[in-house]
Amino acid sequence: MAYARRMQSKQQKSGTSNGGSELGLIAQIRRRAGQTGRGGLRLGIGDDCALLAPRAGEEIAVTTDLSIDGRHFRLDWHSAESVGHRALARGLSDLAAMGARPVGAFLSLGLPRELTVASGLRRAWVDRFLDGLLALAEVHKTPLAGGDLAESPLAMADIVLVGAVPSGKALLRSGARVGDLLYVTGVLGGAAAGLAALERLATDKAPAARRIPKKMEVLLAPHLYPQPRIAQGLWLMRHGASAALDLSDGLSTDLAHLCEESGVSAEVEANALPIAPGATLVQALHGGEDYELLFTAPAGTRIPRKIGGVPVTRIGCIVKRHLRQTMITLRTPEGAQPLVARGWEHFSS
Question: Domain map of the chain by residue range?
Answer without folding.
Answer: 2-14+23-166, 173-338
